[in-house]
Amino acid sequence: MELGLIELSRLQFAMTAMYHFLFVPLTLGLSIIVAIMETVYVMTNRPIWRQMTKFWASLFGINFVLGVATGITMEFQFGMNWSYYSHYVGDIFGAPLAVEGLMAFFLEATFVGLMFFGWDKMSKPAHAVVTWLVAIGSNFSALWILIANGWMQNPVGAEFNPDTMRMEMTSFFDVVFNEVAQAKFVHTVSAGYVTASVFVLGVSALYLLQGRHMDLARRSISVAAAFGLASALSVVVLGDESGYSASHTQKMKLAAIEAMWETHDAPAPFTLVGIPDKEARETHYAVEIPWVMGLIGTRSLTHDIPGINDLVKEAEHKIQRGLVAYDALMTIREQRDNTPAEVRAAFEENSDDLGFAFLLKKYVEDPRTATPEQIQMAANDTIPGVGPLFWAFRLMVALGFSFIAVMVFFFIRANFFQMQFPRWSLYAAVAIIPTPWLAAELGWFVAEFGRQPWTVDGVLPTALSASHLSVGDLLITLAGFVTFYSILFIIEMSLMVKYIKKGPYMDVPETATWQERHEHRLRTHDGQGPFAPTPAE
Predict the structure, then answer these.
(1) How confident is the model over 488-531, as pLDDT tens digits?
(2) Against a cut of 0.85, is the pTM above it?
(3) What DSSP string describes 408-425?
(4) CA distances from residue 403 to 8, 64, 101, 137 in whole angstroms, order as listed
(5) How far does the chain reach from its first CA to its final CA, in angstroms?
(6) Are 12 and 77 in contact (CB under 8 A)?
């Protein structure tokens, strides 16, 4: 299979996936923020909260619709561009996606109409329940999608059947409660909450700078700062959980992220900065913080974290065991029911490493004829791109800690300084609106690029997963996707800018009337009005 075909297939899927994920974080977070605002409205009966709910819900709706449109094409790509992957692991990977479509997507799709058009047809508590169901459905969709993705990172609850030549599920429970999937879910949705909080914060800061919609902006900042602070702290804590999980499920990815070429004595240091050199297998000008990596990766002071060189040697041994399984598999395939028991026993003993033998197909048609040099090259292929992973991870982490600082600042100003914000901080809030999306895309890059050369880690190499298409077909479809998605991006940005400029246009008279009455009540009960008590002599 041509290398160009694999790279183009990867490029097309990466483009569609990362573009789709521009919409997902805002959908996840904004749905919860809108539900919180409507809950406050139900509890206080203050029209300003109804106006806030409707305004931010309108922006949520624009983002939601375009997110759905871009997400549908991704699932079609599994059948179009990755047909062997779909055949090989479809029984496992397809199950959570089917559950997502039947349960989560239908839940949010059913209630999203009631959320937007049921304001005057339902009671306030009932409508708030509908809004929460939309939010839960959105987050529930993410759960099942990340369960599917988590299985690709850590393929538990499944085994290869030599008679059907496919992976088959052995435990749906193990697939659902896969530790990688659960860590990815909570980390991803928390990142979405931060994204929405920064978005609400930035738009509200823009209104304050313009002197428009002041009451809505200040209250929105209060909600965004509190929700965003909790979410930003969660992202860091849950990111630590992902690192701990990778230390025993994806050791090569963790070593590559840290540019850890050699196994350090426990506890391993964390490389703050440096210049990874994959050819020389060393990191130049490394600045290390003692013990930190050991604590993150193993949560102990006594356990080692294996380095890349030791993991490459381990991969060589796995390729050798995989060749035993591959040889037995070919015998089973030829003799079927007449296969000797010792052959099946040899396959069962080494089947966990069958995928490592498939790495040799990049160099030779029959892995059993591979030379020691080819085995060494295949083992070296298990090293992902260390430099890009190293810096992408550090930039993502730096952005994560910056979000904590921003949210702490606005939380303090909102709660202890009577909602007074320096103008420089408002300009900064507007300027950082794009940064959570950058952090989210970097996170997905680390997760997916760090898994290479595998589509399913340790099971199916990426080079074997693609469909047998022509390069011309892929170039045409890639150009089509780029054009279509560019148009959608322009539509999204135009609509979002239009409605942000328009501001909260719904329930304006009701809110203004209530605000006037509320200010009148304050004036007559704060010691200044005609009914104020007379001070004692």
Answers:
(1) 889 989 999 999 999 888 777 777 787 777 777 767 765 454 43
(2) yes
(3) HHHHHHHHHSTT---HHH
(4) 35, 24, 33, 26
(5) 97
(6) yes
